[in-house]
């Protein structure tokens, strides 16, 4: 537990010291939103809610892939060996998942705020929408952390990261789009219980698998 | 490993399936009509694919436990024949959909799930290709294989049930069991599944043996006296 906390704290301090990376990601997100805004040449809410929703999730998907891709490659090889000798792989992967989850929550909330600001905000049930963002952030973070670990072992990291993670993220993305569509229409929460349960189950599967499989990845 | 009986069984079963599939009696049904014969090919191929991919995942798991390169060879070749079946399943499904739903690729969650599944396994082979070191490749590909299979199952069997699908058994459509009152289909369908699985294993076995020979040749080349 103490190990986990120390590792998590290390991730946060590291990020804080290289603030340009964090602001780079925020800027990436903001400029993508802005590009979309200008390309659609919006006058007054010409975007249908479905397009609005899908566009937001696609922007978020690309931001997530870019943000998490560096979570293993930013540290030098020697330092990874140092961690290897110090702590258990389980606490490393958990700390990375928690850290990336937090990062994704921050990124997606900021992104959502800016997106709603420029593109208009047709969301009917804000609470449910935030829940879907939260669930997606956790799910994306846990899938992408393991995939980043896999991709960092190979060359041509960037392509591999996208190719490996997109198909795996897809079930999650589809469920989230469904859920957030319900939130957008302001439907009753009972309607969305199925989606919430499926998303929670998917998150649980992915986190458990990362926890179990990462030690094998770490050893090589 | 070198037993012949299952290969003979495979040939006999598939001969039976092909003959019964094209000329045997089938129930008369509205809309589906004669295309119901495709059950022996399309549905059976999907089931065989899932079985092969499951077996591939189990061998990946075995590799992570025992570290023998042969387990990884078997896992990768099983995945390859599973992928081959997936593509065949898509093609046969396309033919079927063209005649019953009027479109070779209708927008259906199960179809899209299948396409994504194929992408997943293509990515698996891409990942394998990007390593030179054999041990590293085997270990990392095994990790990805297990991870991919765990996502593949909900993608193809659970998610389509939550949304409306054109396929039987989801979105209020009846399942095939209700069409098949006199078990005519079943008499051919079960042998078809077993036959296709055996054929997939055969394909995988041939490639595994090829790999073993290649490895032996490489070793001989490396150890050759100069």
Radius of gyration of chain A: 18 Å
From the N-terminal CA to the C-terminal CA of chain B, the straight-line distance is 35 Å
Major sheet details of chain A: none
| Mean pLDDT score of chain B | 80
The tally of domains of chain A stands at: 1
Low-confidence stretches of chain B: 170-174
Percentage of β-strand residues of chain B: under 5%
Please give the count of helices of chain B.
7
Oligomer: heterodimer
Share of helix of chain B, binned: over 70%
Mean pLDDT score of chain A: 84
H/E element sequence of chain B: HHHHHHH
Encode the helix/strand succession of chain A as letters.
Answer: HHHHHHHH
Largest sheet of chain B: none
| Helix content percent band of chain A | over 70%
Content of β-strand of chain A:
under 5%
Q: Rg of chain B from C-alpha positions?
A: 20 Å
Keywords:
heterodimer; A: 220 residues; mainly alpha; 8 helices; B: 226 residues; 7 helices; heme transmembrane transporter activity (chain A); transmembrane (chain A); transmembrane helix (chain A); Cyt_c_biogenesis_CcmB (chain A); membrane (chain A)
